[in-house]
């Protein structure tokens, strides 16, 4: 088995004024080329865990390691290039005053990738095409796009610096039901095509079952169950997982296939 690319060891996170920790001794291991889903109800600690893996929030105790090294000095350039994120709501994550091309090029500028404007413009056109938009869409502004297209723009921005790891926090839950499947299919396709490592937070086990090989079930800041998604969904060990499963109207038909 390959070494983890990203891992968290005994992560605990207390927020001031709270009587319980948001994370309580969580271990998580992400191996290159795999996909991990983090599920649980609202308040379980999923987003807090993702923010730790992204290095934007520090654990009260415990350690994040990236490529075998502790991330204790903060997010160094290689980390910021290789670990990118897509958030839930593209409306608030895209600056309305910037053109799509500027938005997508932003990580290239801040990470000083690409020597000149022409090289950056070429990369922007490339990633817009990869997410199903047109290079000329770069001249337009976020409000001119639908919710699903705006999430495609956010995904293009995340892909621009050619990351190895894509973190996604509820990437389809702000979208109309009709476009959710399109974005799930796009993520699936990109992960396969680019060999990305995916860590996906979702309250929805059905979405995790479509995108992730492994799943980690959280409750009250702790991991209650983990394992291959197919095993956890077809034969859940924890009562809590069974309750989450019972809340899904119908599991996808392809559940038994490898995602
Ligand atoms: N900045 C903060 N200050 C205080 N408490 C916080 C903060 N961020 C999160 N919490 C608390 O930590 C706990 C875990 O929150 P978190 O957002 O990680 O859960 P979640 O599983 O992602 O839920 P949701 O699906 O609702 O986002 C909750 O009790 C939440 O209120």
UniProtKB/TrEMBL annotation:
This is Peptide/nickel transport system ATP-binding protein. One of its GO terms (biological process) is transmembrane transport. InterPro entries: AAA+_ATPase, ABC_transp_ATP-bind, ABC_transporter-like_ATP-bd, ABC_transporter-like_CS, P-loop_NTPase. The keyword S-adenosyl-L-methionine does not apply. The keyword DNA repair does not apply. It comes from Micromonospora viridifaciens. Belongs to the ABC transporter superfamily. Keywords: ATP-binding, Nucleotide-binding, Transport.
């Amino acid at each position: 088995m390959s070494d983890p690319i990203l891992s968290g060891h005994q992560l605990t996170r207390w927020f001031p004024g709270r009587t319980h920790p948001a994370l309580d001794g969580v271990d998580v291991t992400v191996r290159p080329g795999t996909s991990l889903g983090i599920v649980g109800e609202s308040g379980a600690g999923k987003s807090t865990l993702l923010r730790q893996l992204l290095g934007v929030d520090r654990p009260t105790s415990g350690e994040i390691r990236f490529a075998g090294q502790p991330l204790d000095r903060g997010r160094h350039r290689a980390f910021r290039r290789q670990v990118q994120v897509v958030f839930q709501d593209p409306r608030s994550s895209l600056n309305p005053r910037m053109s799509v091309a500027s938005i997508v090029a932003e990580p290239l500028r801040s990470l000083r990738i690409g020597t000149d404007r022409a090289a950056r413009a070429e990369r922007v056109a490339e990633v817009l095409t990869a997410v199903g938009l047109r290079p000329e869409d770069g001249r337009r502004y976020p409000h001119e796009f639908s919710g699903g297209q705006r999430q495609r723009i956010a995904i293009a921005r995340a892909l621009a610096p050619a990351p190895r790891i894509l973190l996604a926090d509820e990437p389809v839950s702000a979208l109309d039901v009709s476009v959710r499947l399109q974005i799930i299919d796009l993520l699936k396709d990109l992960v396969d095509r680019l060999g990305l490592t995916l860590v996906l937070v979702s309250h929805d086990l059905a979405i995790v079952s479509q995108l992730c090989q492994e799943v980690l079930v959280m409750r009250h800041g702790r991991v209650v169950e983990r394992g291959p998604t197919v095993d956890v969904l077809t034969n859940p060990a924890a009562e809590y997982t069974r309750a989450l499963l019972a809340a899904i109207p119908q599991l996808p038909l392809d559940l038994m296939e490898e995602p």
